[in-house]
Design a protein that fits this description.
This protein has two domains: about 40-190, no CATH class; about 210-425, Alpha Horseshoe (Serine Threonine Protein Phosphatase 5, Tetratricopeptide repeat), CATH 1.25.40. The chain contains 17 helices and no strands. It has helices at about 25-40, 45-75, 85-105, 110-135, 140-155, 160-205, 225-245, 255-265, 270-280, 285-300, 305-315, 320-330, 340-350, 355-370, 375-390, 390-400, 420-425. The longest helix is centred in the middle third of the chain and has 46 residues, at about 160-205. The protein is rod-shaped and about 120 Å long.
Length: about 425
Amino acid sequence: MPDETAETKPDGSGPAKNDSAVPVSGGRGIAAEVMATLRASGQGVFARMNTLLSIVVAVACLVVLWVVIIQSVELAQVGKPYGQIYTLLMVAAAAFGLGTFAGFVFGAVGEEKEIFGGIATAVNGVIGGFALSDLTQSKNGVIITVLSSLAESCGQQTVGLVSCLIGFYGTAGFMFMYMNKQYLLNPELSKKQQLAEQNQRLSALTLNVKVSLAEAGTRPTTDPKNLECIRKVLKDFESAKNIDPTLVNLLSLEALRSYSKAYYVADEIPKAEAMLRQARMLQPDDVETLFFLSHLLITAERPREAIPYLTFLQALPNAPVLTWKLLGYACLWDSSRLKEAEQASEKYLAFAPDDAGAKFNLACVHAQRGPQDPGNRQRLLTELRELVKRDPESGKLLVSFAKLDPCEDDFYAWRNDGEFNEIIAPFGPTGSAPKSP
């Protein structure tokens, strides 16, 4: 009786061909499917070869295990001892291990080649000389004797199976290690070595770049020749990073700090900031990283963003003294933190009483509070007289700050104060840039 579920052709002449059916051709079809899957995976040629070799080794292991199990069952059924057959597994494992060691030796480069070069030469001599001459002897050769002993320990009458296992797994182990060493490990090690050498060079170039010597809001500097060398190293690093973006993940904390200083002095602030934030991911409480990042944010005209980092930094036991100077400056940009700005500046001045920048920051605190309070007014005027006397540049800065902009100028409310104008009068007219000396 015909199958009622079978589809028919449109003309009713017979069953239609099922186009969705996939022809199966045994092992050949499976191999084709595996290769198609590997091509569709998006992996490179080496990765596909490596995956295919891994599959072959895994399948071969299953085959050997199956053979051992079948033979042990057959021997058990006829009442013969079958424990020796499991030695085949150890022989296969040993051959694979020796093969991987040989692959490592022949794939060695650099310092490894100096260490294992003698072994590679010895192996070549054994294969080229001793092995060929020994195999010409029918029964008394060392290789034949060893194979016979292994076969006997595995319960085999001949050396055929043992020889095949050693040959296959030794070759598979060699290819597996050599391919990974040559195309994966060696390039990675070479990349790390080159990166380490470049990091060492950049560290030497940025050794004299002192962020702490740069005033808040200004970049650190270096001599033009050194800057040119720094830019060249950064250009090489950028080229390498474009090829492999993961290079940044290989940098140590010290290297990240060196790159941040290099980008900072080269006026590439966003890249310097990215390096510092990467460094914070490695060690969030690193004092030098926190200080650099705070200094950079202030230079980038984002002082409010620096406040949390400086607040965290000042609580650390080994915080640098300059932390309080930066904090005293950054808090000036938040009117709700004037008390913190005052305390930070006073604490820093306890260590460096002659620092004009910190004194100016303290004067800005009192300026923002306005002249309404007589005590605050008198204190500011006293501070300004002493400041411009010791540091005339501060007087010029006061003039440039005394502009008609109440939103930004700390001294806007003091423009009509007679004593204030007397203090800044020698340095230029109020509301204009200072006169050239």
